[in-house]
Amino acid sequence: MRLALGLSYRGTAYKGWQSQPGGGTVQDALEAALGRFAACEVRTVCAGRTDAGVHALNQVVHLDIDRERENYSWVRGTNTFLPDDIAVQWCQRVPDHFHARNGARGRRYAYLLLESPVRPALESGQLGWTFRPLDGARLRAAANVLIGEHDYSAFRSSECQALSPVKQLREISIRRQGAVWRLEFEGSAFLHHMVRNIMGCLIMVASGRRESAWLADVLASRDRKLAAPTFMPDGLHFLGPRYDAEWALPERTPPFDALPADTAVLAF
């Protein structure tokens, strides 16, 4: 049978999602825990690979298994063998033609950014940081430049394996709660480092060091060398994929309630 799992994790201690020969990834930890619980070898496919240091609130994976367990047993049993910073949130049986990655109609990320003269301490690893004051109106204007279907080569890592740099960025929403900015990105799919490279550019404009026209030129150039440096991974959270309603998979998990600035809407 095929199972879909929803997974949350803090990515600080891991080398990203994708399994590596030396271990140390989220996929390695999950498959090891599933293998111990099911007493067999398990392989998983995820909805969206995350980089080293990037977190997830509802990463969706699928796996094929011939062991019969109740859904809640897959959650609690697997979590018994997972480290404290990774947890299965839900389990659901799905038809064999469901595919966690290929079946996703969209993906969502949130970037949390602390605007403060002082670096993060208690929240270290969970937030990005800028000591420069940001202007909300400039931030919104810069974000609007990027909406639509474009060739995002200027924001693409040299290690990106995507077949095409053309993606559809459907929405960038901006909220603020105190010193914490929350930017949410929703798109058809994302290139390697795309959100972090966009964040570097947005901060350049919002802090007054560049104009929105510069960002439009960067996008049109399709040249990574013209964009800002890749921003830190700390504040990036994979909120999860979007699927067709027929699958009836959860799009929200309890960790969403712990993420700062979930409801405070920024007024310009």
What is the secondary structure topology, with strand pairs?
Elements lengths: L1 E8 L16 H13 L6 E2 L8 E10 L6 H10 L5 E9 L11 E10 L12 E3 L5 H11 L1 E4 L14 E12 L2 E8 L6 H13 L5 H10 L14 E7 L26
Parallel strand pairs: 3-10, 5-6
Antiparallel strand pairs: 1-3, 1-4, 2-3, 5-9, 5-10, 7-8, 8-9
Helix pairs in contact: 1-2, 3-4, 3-5
Protein name: tRNA pseudouridine synthase A
EC number: 5.4.99.12
Family: Belongs to the tRNA pseudouridine synthase TruA family.
Give the structure's gist in a few sentences.
Helix content is 21%, strand content 27%.
Keywords:
5 helices; 2 domains; Alpha-Beta Plaits; alpha+beta; globular
Describe this protein's structure:
It is a single chain. By secondary structure, this protein is an alpha+beta fold. It folds into two domains: 2-103, 2-Layer Sandwich (Alpha-Beta Plaits), CATH 3.30.70; 106-238, Pseudouridine synthase I, catalytic domain, C-terminal subdomain (Alpha-Beta Plaits, 2-Layer Sandwich). Helix content is 21%, strand content 27%. It is built from five helices and ten strands, in the order E-H-E-E-H-E-E-E-H-E-E-E-H-H-E. It has helices spanning 26-38, 71-80, 136-146, 194-206, 212-221, and strands spanning 2-9, 45-46, 55-64, 86-94, 106-115, 128-130, 148-151, 166-177, 180-187, 236-242. Strands 1, 2, 3, 4, 5, 6, 7, 8, 9 and 10 form a ten-stranded mixed beta sheet that branches. It is globular and about 60 Å long. The protein starts with a strand and ends in a 26-residue tail after the last strand. The model is unreliable at 263-268 (pLDDT under 50).
